[in-house]
Design goal:
FAD/NAD(P)-binding domain; D-Amino Acid Oxidase, Chain A, domain 2; 2 domains; 10 helices
Length: 398
């Protein structure tokens, strides 16, 4: 066997939506791109079944995907606009409430609910027509860096060389580990249980969220038509119980919270339910010599605000801006360029991690003084439209 050397300007390790968006962005900027994945990715078909994994994409994600010519390639008939949010502290009958709506924020929509398969199918389709993008399948064994380039050696002996390596390989990032980047990690002792239902009443584009202490955080997000997507951040033991029950039983458990607004829930066919562990992950840095981390490789947050994917797309937007705006004498992996990327992302990521972690802790407390304080805070914030608009703008990435 002969060893192959694959040269590129940017080598992206990982084949998720964030990595694909980065590949498209750098390709459209005229750079040579290599995408390394451990296996041939399964084709994302646009079949009629509703995917249980969905994302609430904000305006930063929308703008990036539009600039990459991906947004219009989505099946927009399967994309639901979020026009309002209704948040309830359901720990007591007199729990606080908080409402956001697009009209009050002077915008057309708060967010868009997009299925994972819809998003990836559009990205895959765009990549088929992208210039200077090479896909490589193989197991990475080592990452070495010198002044001129980064070198990834694969199990079969092939070598990938690039001026910049991007770690888009998830929370257990191989790239991050090769760079000896330390992490702060904490498990929330919860799992995100996801599935879909038809609802008896129109959802009117409203995303509902209930904080229920011992039961975790229940969210029902609008899908097109009279359908909703459940994201239940449930304690591990409860999550295991929910996974073992028929979806009709799960619908009955949700009825006390959503029956007034949505009516009876009916499982979509074919029935499908999934769960994934919830954790907080803070790498000590998101860069190393000739390496940048994006997406879950760079940060993992609690999904109660639905911003994990949005943070990843914001990473891509920022990295593209810094690389495309670099001085002529610097290559795309120059340390000065990477330092700018790190500084630009530090504040937003830290704020989102602090906010989601703080809210997860606050609403899991059953202490009466804490209950009273959070109910008062929710009700007070609900009466302050200027502050609510600022919170919405932050959530939108503005």
């Amino acid at each position: 066997m002969t060893t192959q050397m694959v040269h590129s300007d940017v080598c992206i390790v990982g084949n998720g939506a964030v990595g694909k968006a980065a590949a498209l962005g750098f390709s459209q900027a005229g750079l040579r791109v290599c995408i390394l994945s451990v296996a041939v990715p399964a084709a994302m078909s646009a079949n009629e079944h509703w995917d249980v994994r969905v994302f609430a994409l904000n305006h930063v994600a929308h703008d990036l995907l539009s600039s990459l010519k991906v947004w219009d390639a989505l099946d927009l008939a399967r994309v639901a606009e979020v026009d309002a949010m209704h948040i309830v502290d359901a720990a007591t009958q007199s729990g606080g409430t908080l409402d956001f709506d697009a009209y009050g924020a002077h915008i057309e929509e708060l967010a868009w609910i997009v299925e994972d398969k819809n998003l990836n199918h559009a990205l895959d389709t765009a990549l088929k027509f992208a210039r200077n993008v090479q896909h490589v399948t193989g197991e990475a064994r080592s990452l070495q860096v010198n002044d001129q380039q980064a070198l990834i050696t694969l199990a079969n002996g092939d070598i990938l060389s690039a001026a910049l390596v991007i770690g888009a390989d998830g929370a257990q990032s191989w790239v991050r580990g090769q760079c000896d980047i330390g992490i702060d990690y904490r498990s929330y002792g919860q799992r995100g249980v996801v599935t879909n239902f038809a609802c008896e009443k129109p959802h009117r584009g409203i995303a509902h969220q209930w904080f229920v202490e011992d039961l975790g955080i229940i969210a029902l997000l609008p899908l097109p038509g009279q359908r909703v997507s459940l994201v239940w951040s449930a304690p591990d033991a409860l999550a295991q119980e929910l996974m073992q029950q028929p979806l009709s039983v799960l619908a009955d458990r949700l009825a006390p919270y959503c029956a007034d607004a949505l009516g009876a829930l009916t499982p979509l066919q074919p029935e499908e339910i999934k769960a994934f562990p919830l954790q907080l992950l803070r790498p000590h840095t998101n860069i190393a010599p000739r390496v940048a981390l994006i997406g879950d490789a760079a940060h993992v947050v609690h999904p109660l605000a639905g911003h994990g994917m949005n943070l990843g797309f914001a990473d891509v937007t920022c990295l593209l801006t810094e690389v495309n705006g670099r001085e002529a004498h610097r290559d795309c992996g120059d340390q000065r360029v990477l330092n700018r990327y790190q500084r630009a992302r530090r504040e937003e990521v830290a704020m989102m991690q602090l906010t989601t972690d703080g809210l997860a802790r606050l609403f899991s407390s059953d202490l009466e003084p804490v209950r009273m304080a959070r109910n008062f805070g929710l009700n007070l914030l609900n009466r302050l439209p200027v502050l609510k608009r600022k919170l919405i703008a932050h959530a939108m990435g503005k």
